[in-house]
Amino acid sequence: MNTSRRAPRTVGRSRVVGIVLAILLVTVAAVAYRLSDPGASDEYGSSDLVRAPLDVATSYESGRVLVSDVRVGSEVTEGDDSFRTQGLFVVVNVTVQATGRDTVRASDMRLVDDGGTTYLPAFSLGSTVQADPGFQTSSDVVFEVDPARIDDLTLELWDQGLTYRYFDRTQTPLGITAANAGRWREAGAGRTVGVVRDDLVTGLP
Amino acid sequence: MSAPGPVVRPRRAPLDPARARAWLSALGALLLVMLFVVVELTYSSTHLPPPRYRPVEPGAVAEGPYADFRLLSLRQTDRWGKGYDGDPGSPDPGAVWVVAQLEVTPRRQQDYLLCTMTLVATDGRAWQPASPAPTHEGESCAPEPEAAQIGTTYPFVLGFAVPVADADRLAGLALETYSWRPSPLLRPPA
Question: Which residues from A are below 8 Å from B when comparing CB atoms?
Answer without folding.
Answer: 12, 14-15, 18, 21-22, 25, 28-29, 32, 36, 101, 132-135, 161, 163, 165-166, 201-205
